[in-house]
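Researcher: I'm preparing a figure for a lab meeting and need a structural model of a single chain. I don't have an experimental structure, so a prediction will have to do for now. The sequence is pasted below. Please return the structure as tokens so I can convert it later.
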Amino acid sequence: MIAYASRTGTRRNLDALRHAGWRLLVSAAGVLRHEGFRYALDNGAWAAFQRQAPIDLVLFAHALDTLGTSADWCVVPDIVAGGRDSLALSTAWLPRVLNACPYALVAVQDGLTPDDVVPLLGARVGIFVGGSTAWKEQTLPQWGGVARAARCWCHVGRVNSARRIRLCSLAGVTSFDGSSGSRYAVTIPRLNHARNQLSLFGGPDACTQDLA
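Model: Understood. Here is the structure written out token by token.
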């Protein structure tokens, strides 16, 4: 699995992440720098949710124009735990994201089913598993299976423990992100060890290896 850490400017943490082979997740709501790493672009919805505010689409559009071209992928605008309202927002923004970025991930949120999402998936569109923590963990194997069937990227957001990394491995996802390594360099070896211990039942699927 590919590991992304939330973008940080702390040199010690960046050095540790670079040594471990991690990439950065740059948020549209933060500093638009990738520090020389391979990176993906987050739309800023989670940061807005934490402030109890809607996603800032003006900030997102600026970030997309600034960093979209060289990003591994970009999360299409969504609403955290927003169900079909989130999917409607993502569907409206998907063409613009694909015009600016090589790969787009549609966030799946509480209440959505594979039937809602599969029609959007394709050669340049994958899945970002978001939503509430309980819903995400409960449905993660399902979304991993959908992505394998569609041969598309599957990413899991907010993964900050060895336990959740193992869940991602069991589901056979392509990548995950977290903020633990961005804040505390001391956690990176433990998290990286969990990442590299691939499950007999999960591990990287051939189609996800091709995408990486």
